[in-house]
């Protein structure tokens, strides 16, 4: 394998943008309680993995007094004008906590939102899920106490400090070696073999990202890689991933084959086929606009114009 730095790495706007996290304020005593009493504070409500919408491409923000009891609260940061922003996270199995025009999951509406709103939604969902799912110390089982305005948990029994977990994962767009204007995509069994996407997987303990890329693509598609290039990243709270995007070139195009378990089909697509699929002018189903997979495919489509 050879690895090369990306020329002008792509910026993936979901979670690449967002409000100022104002991390220095997290140590202030009773910060969340004080901001909940301030009518200027804006709140993003998270119900499971959904947030309320004011339109197809806009979040519905509420005041702190609108959100009912039963939420886990945390400080997300401040807007450019200094407005404080909190998240109020509710369990998915309860009723919708506030009235809204509609509700949308990040994976469904993230690609439609303005970058700052998409980034804020991503942070709210990532932190909100941890707030609801990690209430007890994993070492001794004691209920923990929230610290750092919702960004840390302290165990009063064993004294351990706990923080939100992020799991690194790679995702890779693979070009052909004989024909660089072809892109290799796979159909996952979880999607019923109906959607084609880039190859992805989690980094294992003690494994570098580059090694993860090589292992995952070889396991899923039977292909060895060269010319590995980093393209950008995206926080993806399903459940708590940081997706690190790469582009690479297959060593032997003819070696491509599905593993038959996780990946049920692999297929080389030429540039015209990808263009038609991106324009919804073919039967090929690609990843949704909210995902880094879609952006890697778009990135490949633009760059492949130069190779013919």
Any overview of this molecule?
The protein is α+β, with helices and mostly antiparallel strands and 308 residues long. Helix content is 20%, strand content 30%. The chain has six helices and 16 strands. The protein has helices at 31-36, 106-109, 115-133, 209-221, 271-278, 292-304; strands at 42-47, 50-55, 58-59, 72-78, 84-90, 102-105, 145-147, 152-154, 161-162, 167-175, 182-188, 196-197, 199-202, 225-236, 241-250, 263-270. The strands form four sheets. Strands 10, 11, 12, 13, 14, 15 and 16 form a seven-stranded mixed sheet that branches. A hairpin with a 4-residue loop joins strand 7 (145-147) and strand 8. The protein is globular, with a radius of gyration of 21 Å. It starts with 30 loop residues before the first helix and ends with a helix. Residues 1-9 have low confidence and may be disordered.
How do the SSEs run, as a string of H and E? HEEEEEEHHEEEEEEEHEEEHH
Let me know the largest β-sheet.
7 strands, mixed
Beta-strand share of residues: 25-35%
Distance between the termini: 24 Å
Brief summary of the model shown:
Helix content is 20%, strand content 30%.
List the helices and strands and how they pair.
Layout: H1 31-36, E1 42-47, E2 50-55, E3 58-59, E4 72-78, E5 84-90, E6 102-105, H2 106-109, H3 115-133, E7 145-147, E8 152-154, E9 161-162, E10 167-175, E11 182-188, E12 196-197, E13 199-202, H4 209-221, E14 225-236, E15 241-250, E16 263-270, H5 271-278, H6 292-304
Parallel strand pairs: 1-5, 10-15
Antiparallel strand pairs: 2-3, 2-6, 4-5, 7-8, 8-9, 10-11, 10-13, 11-12, 11-16, 14-15
């Amino acid at each position: 394998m050879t690895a090369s730095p990306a020329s002008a790495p792509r910026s993936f706007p979901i979670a690449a943008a967002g409000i100022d996290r104002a991390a220095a304020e997290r140590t202030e005593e009773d910060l969340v309680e004080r901001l909940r009493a301030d009518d200027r504070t804006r709140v993003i409500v998270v119900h499971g993995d959904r947030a309320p919408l004011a339109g197809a491409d806009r979040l519905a923000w509420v005041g702190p007094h609108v959100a009912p009891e039963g939420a886990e609260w945390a400080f997300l940061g401040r807007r450019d004008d200094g407005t404080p922003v909190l998240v109020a996270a509710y369990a998915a199995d309860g009723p919708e906590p506030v009235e809204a025009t509609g509700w949308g999951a990040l994976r469904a509406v993230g690609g439609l939102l303005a970058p700052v709103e998409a980034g804020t939604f991503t942070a709210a969902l990532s932190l909100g899920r941890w707030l609801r799912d990690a209430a007890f110390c994993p070492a001794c089982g004691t209920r923990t106490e929230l610290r750092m305005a919702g960004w840390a948990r302290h165990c009063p029994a064993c004294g351990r400090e706990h923080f939100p977990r992020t799991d690194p994962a790679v995702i890779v767009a693979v070009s052909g070696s004989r024909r660089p204007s072809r892109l290799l995509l796979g159909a996952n069994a979880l999607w019923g073999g109906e959607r084609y996407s880039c190859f992805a997987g989690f980094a294992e303990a003690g494994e570098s990202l580059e090694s993860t890329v090589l292992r995952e693509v070889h396991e899923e598609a039977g292909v060895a890689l060269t010319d590995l290039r980093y393209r950008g990243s995206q926080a993806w709270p399903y459940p708590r991933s940081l997706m690190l995007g790469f582009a690479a070139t297959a060593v032997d195009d003819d070696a491509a084959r599905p593993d038959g378990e996780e990946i049920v089909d692999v297929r080389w697509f030429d540039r015209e086929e990808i263009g038609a699929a991106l324009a919804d002018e073919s039967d090929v189903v690609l990843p949704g606009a909210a995902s880094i997979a879609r952006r890697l495919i778009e990135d490949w489509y633009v760059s492949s114009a130069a190779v013919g």
